[in-house]
Amino acid sequence: MMPTSQLDNILEEFQSLDEDFRLELLLDYAEKLPALPPEFQDDKQKEMALVPECQTPVYLFIGTENDTIEIYAEVAPESPTIRGVVSILVHALQGTPVQTIENIPYDLIYKLGLAHKIGSMRSHGINAIIQRIKERIKQESGSTDKI
Amino acid sequence: MSNYIHPEVLVDTQWVADHLNDLEVRIVESDEDVLLYETGHIPDAVKIDWQLNLQDPVVRDYIDKSQFEKLMSEKGISNQTKVVFYGDKNNWWACYALWVFKLFGHQHCLVMNGGRQKWIEEGRALTKELPNTAAAEYTVNRVNEQQIRAFRDEVLLHTKAKKPLIDVRSSQEYTGELLHMENYPQEGALRGGHIPGAQNVPWATAANEDGTFKSYVELKEIYEKGVGLNIENEVIAYCRIGERSAHTWFVLTYLLGYKKVRNYDGSWTEWGNMVRSPIER
């Protein structure tokens, strides 16, 4: 049997909760996004801001070390929903084999059981952001450069 | 604030701080981010979410009269309550919520100038504690749709009559270069461009860096000198789904005193998808 992955654990954590508590759990994730290590701070401005119109910059630093993913991110606390989702991705992927990225579902928000609680329009938008992050990770983890 | 035509609709952060225990006042936070209120809010403020509370979950429309009455009752808002809206992103969603309240004819609607950002920058208190709201009595007497909401057929007549339309989206959306706001593909349309005759004034042009509204003189410059509106005009504002344009509706209606401004909430997600709707690029 395959060992349970970090992603599976997170999905189970959300799904086992009553719907009303899932947003609280998302907020917990927003709060536990690890701080960006100081060595990345200077390069932050060069990184892409994923949600420009909404002034919600998502800074992502991705690399691979021995075929495992190293990922760091920073998202403004004024955008806790996006921050929570990015934190889920960081927790699901950190230190896992590069292929793990393929397991991130295209409709993560629905799989987490958050769609009703967030609203359908927001859910679609956030799923789109997840796709962009996923593409970005795939692109960057394809290179053997160290971060 | 005194130069605005209706300065009475704006209150500053100090006014809100002074009225936290005023039983005639209910503070309403309305944000784009569904979790922001939970990270801390003005003491005793209630949350009203534009999507989860104000929109019908099935039909593309707002909640109906009885659902609005129920929501008001639950939030402790009576017909006489002075409702002070504030929120994130230059009060974008606060203005949208205010517009929906006006659809249901709520009389006393105010905006806290500068919104969440200004309150926080001034180091004022936030709390995670949920307010203890006693249920209130609420009756919707008159739905105000005709005066402030425009539907597609009316927009078509409006454009044929060459009356002014303001497209408040980004210039790339206006020119048709982008089919949707970046990262909002679900709010896209099959065709890009704008409604014929519409002029482009991105909504946030009306806001200062600190989230407050620009001065009366600056707003006159933008909307009158800039795109030639005048106070006698019948104006329709639109964006993608009617939320950014609610901000412009607020500015034109209250700060510049225009009497005939409507928000076309069908906006580009309706217009850009309709068969044979006229489009300009």
The oligomeric state of the chains shown is heterodimer
Instruction: Supply the helix-strand structural class of chain B.
Output: alpha/beta
Largest sheet of chain B: 5 strands, parallel
**What is the tally of beta strands of chain A?**
2
**Discrete helix count of chain A:** 7
Distance between the termini of chain B: 37 Å
| Anisotropy-based shape of chain A | globular
Model regions low in confidence, pLDDT < 50 over at least 5 residues of chain B: none
Helix content of chain B: 25-40%
SSE pattern of chain A: HHHEEHHHH
**Computed Rg of chain A:** 15 Å
Notes on the protein architecture:
The complex is a heterodimer of chains A (147) and B (281). Chain A has seven helices and two strands; from the N terminus they run H-H-H-E-E-H-H-H-H. Chain A is mainly alpha-helical and 147 residues long. Chain A has a two-stranded antiparallel sheet with strand order 1-2. In chain A, helix 1 crosses helix 4 (80-93). The longest helix of chain A has 22 residues, at 120-141. The termini of chain A are far apart. Chain B is of the alpha/beta class. Chain B is built from ten helices and nine strands. Chain B has a five-stranded parallel sheet with strand order 1-5-4-2-3. In chain B, helix 3 packs across helix 9. The mean pLDDT of chain B is 94.
What are the defining features of this structure?
heterodimer; A: 147 residues; mainly alpha; two-stranded antiparallel ribbon; 7 helices; 11% strand; disordered C terminus; B: 281 residues; alpha/beta; five-stranded parallel beta sheet; four-stranded parallel beta sheet; 10 helices; 29% helix; 12% strand; globular
